[in-house]
Specification:
- This protein has 208 residues and is mainly α.
- 81% of the residues lie in helices and 0% in strands.
- It has a single domain (22-207), classed as Four Helix Bundle (Hemerythrin (Met), subunit A) (Up-down Bundle), CATH 1.20.120.
- It has nine helices and no strands.
- Helix 3 (72-100) crosses helix 5 and helix 7 packs antiparallel against helix 9.
Length: 208
Amino acid sequence: MTLARPLLIWGGLIWAALAAALVVPLAVAATSPLLAWREPIYIAAGFAGVVGLALLLLQPLLAGGYLPGLGARRSRHLHARVGGALLTAVVIHVAGLWLTSPPDVIDALLFRSPTPFSAWGVIAMWAVLATALLATLRRRLRLRPSVWQSCHLALAAVIVTGTVVHALLIEGTMGTLSKAALSALVLAAAVKVVVDRRPWRVVARQGA
């Protein structure tokens, strides 16, 4: 009982900190003066991008089983669900921008946009789509767990890097401090998962 109480308190603090990390950037974006006179579609597209960045914090935490109170099976199930939500957020983000300004989206997809953040966003988008496709075809391709893990982690690294750089380069509705803090947390969580999983050791062991 003596040990259980501190663990319960610690778990509650972790969940509270996670909730704050997710909610604060959304609240800051919702109160941004840059939303004034914007079309609803554009606002929805922008918020989808903010939600996508927030979901990227959940993914490595779930994949690594770092959230208290969730078993390994539950964490994996939620990781897959959040992955689907992330894909939906990306689709809404891109589709909304397409509806408001098709030429800009075309330039971004063709990597000829004058804005540097566009290329990083497109790279992250393709990595998200590739991850979803690979997850769907995983059983059909009969991928070994080690191969799936290595591919998944590699694509996740591209997604995190591309999304964070994309977000940091944009001067949009997200506050500078809240955006930087959320991006730092996403990077830290992703690095921890990669270090804990050590995919390079699996590859080296199989090649030996």
